[in-house]
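User:
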Amino acid sequence: MSLTKKFLKSEFGQKILSRILAGFIWLVYVSSRKTFVIDDDSKPYMRGEGNGIFSFWHGRMMLLPAICPPKHKMRVLISHHRDGLLISRTIGHFGQATVSGSSSKGGKEAVSEILRALENGDNISITPDGPRGPTQVATKGIVTLARLSKKPILPVTFSATRNHRLRSWDRFMLAMPFGRIVFYIGPPMLIDENADEDTARMQVETAMNSLVEKADEAVHG
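Assistant: Predicted structure:
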């Protein structure tokens, strides 16, 4: 293993890298022209008049810290993988907390923690196609959380005129400074306690992918 890889895998290296990443995200956000397209029914949640589950695709999570309504702490579900720790440290620079867990490890504990957080008034951010994909395909986990908590799912995405798509499984969108960014927040989706989870999962997936198409069209159309 090279010295560079050893450094980046070390705790000190991850702390340094998280500061660099947070600084870059801040630079992109403040240097870009921004437009927020928010569904009328979601505006109360964006004003902090209620809490819910904010749903981003993994490949569109770079500007997740920009979605932080007032009055309610934002807690982000991340995996136990080393990349998850780096994400946790990075968003920590923006005052957002994390919940650790995934479908493969720590799932039950994470669900319990998320339900407690939602009951206490916190918001939750989730990437329902993470941490392994397939990209832009929702798992049932987010539907289960919404059904148990009786809190709405708010689909969120962004697109940017200046961006680089990584060759990762999620085709991660790396927004670049000095461009135009469009954020979309779709209508809140309440999941009935008797709803078929697979049908509800497809509804969430369809709503999120529709937002991605609208955001991409808005900046490139």
